[in-house]
Amino acid sequence: MTATTFSTGRARRAVRTRRGVRVVAVIAGVFSLLTAVLIVLACFIDDQRIDRDMGSATATVTEVTDRRAAVEFDTGGGRTVRPVTGVFYPTGLIEGQQVQVEFRRANPDLVRVSGRSWTVAVVPALSVPAVVVPLAVLMYATASRRGHPSPPRVPRMVRR
């Protein structure tokens, strides 16, 4: 193996590595944006379902964690509901608090705090791509060809 062959192999690996970094950067950016859009879309659809078949009740906040707030409420007729996923848009709720909720009568597990809607989910959903997309752009730019000049082309020696 000559020095020329070694440096050519190294250059090819560097080009493949930069290409791989650029692909990962694009996938990460697109995935984070797609996830944010799908989260907001799901919240919008759930709100539409609640609006079409709405019931309301006073709920008691039974548990608050970093990711959700569990509630318990009576749908009328003595049926108590404790939605497994908790309440939509739980920001600012504290354990033991009484809150007005709106739910879908056909499926009381779809429940939101009264007066809140899918628009509350926009900022949290976009917070991830707000961090990931600039990082992905930085990764892509760092791995681009401009910052890494190609090694000089060395003609191959033909043996006869």
- What structural category do the secondary elements indicate? alpha+beta
3D shape? rod-shaped
Helix/strand order, N-terminal first: HEEEEEH
Helix content estimate: 40-55%
Q: What is the rounded Rg?
A: 27 Å
Task: Profile the largest sheet.
Answer: 5 strands, antiparallel
Give the averaged pLDDT, no decimals: 87
Quickly count the helices. 2
Low-confidence stretches: none
User: What is the strand tally?
Assistant: 5
Strand content is 15-25%
Oligomer: single chain
The separation of the N and C termini measures: 18 Å
Q: How are the strands of the largest sheet arranged? A: 3-2-1-4-5
Write up what this structure looks like.
The chain has 160 residues and is α+β, with helices and mostly antiparallel strands. The chain is 44% helix and 21% strand. A five-stranded antiparallel β-sheet has the order 3-2-1-4-5. Helix 1 runs antiparallel to helix 2 (122-142). The protein starts with a helix and ends in an 18-residue tail after the last helix.
Care to give the gist of this entry?
By secondary structure, this protein is α+β, with helices and mostly antiparallel strands. It has helices at 3-52, 122-142; strands at residues 54-64, 69-74, 80-81, 98-104, 107-113.
Ordered list of secondary-structure elements with their pairings:
Layout: H1 3-52, E1 54-64, E2 69-74, E3 80-81, E4 98-104, E5 107-113, H2 122-142
Antiparallel strand pairs: 1-2, 1-4, 2-3, 4-5
